[in-house]
Every structure is written in structure tokens, then in C-alpha cells.
Amino acid sequence: MRRWLIRRTGQAVITLAVAVLLMFVLMRAAPGDPLTRLSGDRALSPAEIAVLRARYGLDQPLLQQLGAFLQGLLRGDLGASIEYGRPVTQLLAERLPASLLLGGTVLLVNFSVGLWLGSRQALRRGSAADRWLTVVSLIGFATPSFWLGLVLAWLVGVHWRLLPPAGMHSPLLDPGSGFLANGMDVVRHLILPALTLSLVSIAATMRYQRGAMLDALRLPYIVTARAKGLSDSRVIWRHAWRNAVFPVITLFGLWLPVLVAGSVFVESVFAWPGLGSLAAAAVGNRDYPLLMGASLLASSLVVLGSLLTDLAYGFLDPRVRLS
Amino acid sequence: MTAVVDTLRRAWQNPRGRAGALVLAGVALAALLGPPLLPDPVAQPDLLHGVNLPPGLGHPFGTDQLSRDVFARVVSGARVSLAVSVLAMALSITLGAAIGLIAGYWGGTTDIVLMRLVDGALAVPRLFLLLLVLAAWERVPIGVLIVLIGTTGWFATSRLVRGEVLRLREESYIRAAEALGAPRRRIIFRHLLPNTLGLLLVAATLGVGEVILLEAGLSFLGLGIHPPTPSWGGMILEAKEVLVTAPWVGVFPGLAIVITVLSADLLGDALRDSIDMWRA
Prior knowledge:
Chain A is mostly helical.
């Protein structure tokens, strides 16, 4: 058990190291000098360029740049944002809670509603409801999140005025009002972005759960349970579902990249103050240190998520540890 | 080769697969033949009276804020989106097949190194990989965009192919070929590659949908196809300005994406089912 734990963690560290190297190489391999984007409206004089190159360490050989970058990384220093002039880590930390709130809500919806719908589909396999749900979830999967977000913001937010179309807090709300009023305000702002991200991503959970449930229902112990005369709901939910829900844990690891990428679009459409809209703004401003920091954080989340999934899976199923 | 033909035939017999294939063919045909028959998607014909017209007889999808026919732009955008995604996908599949075959067949250190690299690459969300490179360009040339999307899309395919090669290597006919002294090249190109074609076909079909969404997303962020060239994602970006007064400008390109991606996914699913049936 312990050796397996150490090996799996070691793999995650190597994966992350390769990812960091790849991102560094990609950014430096891209054509053009980051400084040309920095200069804004007027052309910089050669002297100014030299000063700026020295300030950002761009006059050093590539290997030394990498060394400096890694050293900073180990100290938790990702440099300063060009646009905001503040440490990248500070900006990321400020935006993280909003993203966790949105991502957590979407995960919760996907896992509860997705598992429930997927199980229902498996139980009524081939029925009209099964086929209908498959098509609807596939349509969601084929929909660009930014477009769905715009349509919902326009329809629900502007046309029907049911929910706020953008932001996280209402500017009209008295900041002195109680915790409950503030909480309700955030929830009202959360509904549309969370709904958008859930709709475009729930198909995977449903399909996975449907397949797992169909497999479980075929197993001999289900036949035995039925033969013993147990009630339908007991056979389905206590016997089959428990085993079917198990492989779905692995989906959690697959989920994070989708959510991280999806949040870039959805957060910028709804002006949700999270990491995704920060990354989109960094792209618009060509703010390299900030973009690099956001990518690093996204990759770390992905690696950590898949590590935790594997560990949880190995913890619950001893066979995984031995293979 | 017969296996691939069988796969295609079984997918065609599946109603959802057939619907996907037909719609996809329709979109491709419109993209090929449509633009010469339709108004110029770039010129701004009547900025005085023809701006933001709702859908009607003359303009089935209405006109945008620059008086351009939205239908002509959607059809023209299909040309760009399909060309980019099909070419990028072809590049991804070739790279994925090559790396997967090498890792799976050579094995040993080559395999370990390649798969560690793939693990690392898969850890960075594909969108961020592309953002990091694309942010350097003021206006990315379309060829570069295709190469970049193609070279960031092969990681998962190479894993899939590697797994299949590892399985095939143990099959008796590959063993027999090796025992008979067949050269590596022959084993790879005559035995291994043809047997992974079905898998690649499924990966390519499902991947095209993914790439259409990705390209639209990049264009929406202002990093993909640049105006005035019409692309579905870029059209939705421009439509943001007139979202409230002329919603049709943004609604139709979005619907075009949904329909095209959905068809590719349905066809891909049918192909996968058909391969699973054949294996069982």
C-alpha cells in the first residue's frame, strides 16, 4: 500500500514537471519578443528595449532563464503581472475562491443530476425517455459554452429580467446588509454560469453512469438478489447502483480539464471574477507572466485531481493497488 | 481494409450514424458550393438601410451590424471551420498513430519516455497550451493555426494506439510474422497499422467535433481566425455588440456549430459501436 502510494505520487510529480517544462518551452518558442507587445502605442528605442530585456531577464541564455523561472517557482514566486503590476500569485489567490465556487457547484450538479439521470436511462434502456435524454445530453455536449452563455444572458438576464446577466455581486445591494442577503445575491448571480457549464458537460457523466449501470445489472449477483425476492428498488439502489457508481469516481479526474477550460469562456461571458476570466483578460492584454501563472495553476489542479482520484480509487478497490 | 469498409457499412445502418453522416455531408456540400452563389460575406453593401435587418425573404438569417448577409457568412464560415478542423485532425491522427506505434512496438525506454511526455502534455488543458503560443501573434496565419491545433491534439490518440498495439503484439499472426523474419517495417505497415485504422477513424470523427468547438472558442477570444474572414466563433464575438438589438446575428452561427458538432459526434458514436460489435 505504502509503496503504491509513493509510486503514484512520484508519477504525479514527474507529470507536473514535464508539464511545466512544456509550458516554458512553448512560451519561449513562440515567435516575437514579448517586449514588442509591451511597448503599446509608440516604438521603443533600442536603449529602452535593452533595459526592459535586462529587467525581465530576457538577455540571459535560455537555460539560465529556465533556471531562474524554476527557482522562482520553488519559492512560490511567479513574477509580476505586466498589466496589473502586482505579484501573479496574489492575483491568482484573489480569483481562486470565485472559481472554486463555480466549479464546485457544477461538479455537484453534474454528479447528482448526471448520476441520477444516467441510472434512470439504464433502467429504462431503449425507452423513449432513454433515447430522448441521450440526444439532449449530446446536444449539450456539442454546444459552445460561450454561445450558450450569451444566449442565456440575453434571454434570461436581459429579455426576461429573471436573473442578473453578469457579475457576482449586485452593485445596488447595500454592502452592510446581512450574510443571508449577500449569500442570496451571490447565488442569484451563480445560477446562469453554473447552468451553462453544467449543460455543456453533463453528457459525459450521464453516458458513463448509464454504461456502468447496464454492466452492473447484468452481473450474476443481481440475478441472485432478484431471485431472493428482494424489492425492485432494493435490488437497483442497494445492489446495482453501489457498484455502478464506483467507476464514475474516475470521471472526477477527467472533469477538471473540461471545467478549467470551460470556465475561461463562461467566466468571461458572465464577467464572473474567477481564474477563467483572469486568464482570458491576460490573453487580451498579452500579459505573459499572468497567463503562465494561470496555466500553471490549471495544470496543477488537473494533476492533483487525477492523483486524488487514483488514490481514492486505490483506497476503495485493493485490486488497483496490485496491478 | 475490409474491416474498415465493414465498420463504415454497419455505422451507415445505424439510424443515428446515418443522420450524422448525411447532415455532415450537407454542411460540407454547402461549404464547397455555397459561397459563389451567395452574396459576398465580407463586403458591406448597404450601411444606410441594410443594417441589422431581421430574418426575412431576402436575408433568411437577417443581416449584421455591417449590413452583411448572415446566411452567406455562416456558409462561408463553414468553409473555414471545416477546412481548419479536418486538416488539423488529419495532422493529429498522423502524429498520434506514429507516436503510438513507436511507443507500443519498440517498448522499453522509448515507450516510457514517450508516455511520460504524453502524461505531462495531457496535464495542461489543451486550451491553455494554445493560449500560451497564440498570445504571441498579432494575427495568426491560418496555416499556423492549423499546425498548432493539430500538434496539440495527438496525445490521447497516441495512448489509444499504443494500447491497441500492445494488445495486437501478442496476437498469433504478429508472432508468426516475427518468427518468419518479417522486417519491422512490414509488420508495422502491413499488420499493425491496418488493424488500428478503425480506432483512428473513430478518434478522427469524434475529434473533428472537438476541434470545431476549439477553433470557434479561440476565434471567440480573438486568437483564431481574424475578421473580416468569417468564422463561426468570430461571428459570435462580433455579435456580442448587437446581442440585444439583433440577436439573430449571433444565434445562427452558434446553431451551425451545434448542428455540425452534433452530427460528427453521432457519426463517431455509430462508428465506435460498430467497431465494438465487430470485436465482440
